[in-house]
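ingest -> validate -> predict -> emit
validate: passed (alphabet ok, no gaps, 174 aa)
predict: started
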Amino acid sequence: MWKNLINIFLIIFVYSICCIFIYNANQDHSTVITKKNKLKTAYATSDVLATIKIDKIGIDHPIYPLSNPKNNVDQNISILKGSILPDKDNSIIFIAAHSGVGKIAYFNNLDKLNKGDKVSFFYKNKEYKYIVSTIYEEKKDGYIHVSKGKDKQLVLTTCSKNKGKQLVVNCILT
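emit:
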């Protein structure tokens, strides 16, 4: 009798733990239906720092805080150390993502941007609109060499199609 009760208790306990893990795993995003009856992923805002949107190349993706493990180019578009967010004076935001192939190659089409293209950065319920000002390649050495002007900047970077180089897209707040 006791053996059966213990087995039942263990089964219920393991089932409950599995349910908790499944529930927590699904808290990162959920599916909603927009007005146009299209499915769209809505990210949990509790752990999202900002969102970057680049219509020309189909980017609409959350940015996680530096301290969040999801702020990692091997999983997402990543904000880099040294970034000063747009609500601060002298702001400069460094954003990096992979290019190439695969589902994490978010910046695969970054080279399709041209001077004058628009990039939106949503932070603290405000949209910051940037315009692409310069696009260049530089030696990939672990650093991004950017001239900091008086304007607020958003700098996007990824590996270039040219070996040993990185693509840098410098944007200015409008």
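The longest strand covers residues 126-139.
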